[in-house]
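Progress report, Aim 2. The chain analyzed during this reporting quarter is listed below.
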Amino acid sequence: MIGDTTQFVASQRLAASDIDGEVVVLNLRNGNYYGLNPVAAEVWRWLQEPRTLDQLISLVTAEFEVTPDRARQEITQLLLDLQARQLIEVTA
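Predicted structure tokens for the chain:
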């Protein structure tokens, strides 16, 4: 469950590289690589410092042509995916 004060930040146990607007992330714990499309890559860049879901929604809606509701759905799914792959850390 993602609460109003839940913060997300990129894990420090990773290696990431920006390639033509996309980001490739290597999880150093398990050796798996993950590719992030341009929008997810931008969210990844913002996650280099702790952010809440609402902060990320504001950033995405300011940068891309997307409604806040759609941004909330997409970012929530991205955060859950990044968390499942141990690419971000979550604090309440």
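The first helix runs from residue 38 to 46. The two ends are 10 Å apart (CA to CA). These observations will guide the mutagenesis work planned for the next reporting period.
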